[in-house]
């Protein structure tokens, strides 16, 4: 449950909304299909069969949608190409794209102390405003050491 909450915290709210709308629509379409194909005497049986099948299918596709939303938001906070990774996750068969994403993903990117934009961990300076970034491992090192490291790159 804790893991699920962390997962849903990362997935954008709009994607969550669309996923639930999608489940509702799939269920309704299933009910309508069941109603149309039913004999006038026995409506309940095809109604529950079609409705149930559509609900399961809708939930499976909604989970897939949520996972794509997760990849999008997670790639973004890791300063990776989010659109590209969503396409990789969506188009590779048998969830290989998701596997590839989790193997290849970078550590979570830091935010600039000055302007708040995402700065990847190997960057010494913010590419948006140019402020020097303090590194997690070398916060105690003198500033000149950081500057010479930055210049040598
Ligand atoms: Zn900045």
From TrEMBL:
PROSITE patterns: PROKAR_LIPOPROTEIN
Keyword Transmembrane set for record: yes
Transmembrane spans: 15-35, 47-71, 83-104
Superkingdom field: Bacteria
Keywords of the record: Membrane, Transmembrane, Transmembrane helix
Name of the protein: Zinc ribbon domain-containing protein
Source organism: Tunturiibacter psychrotolerans
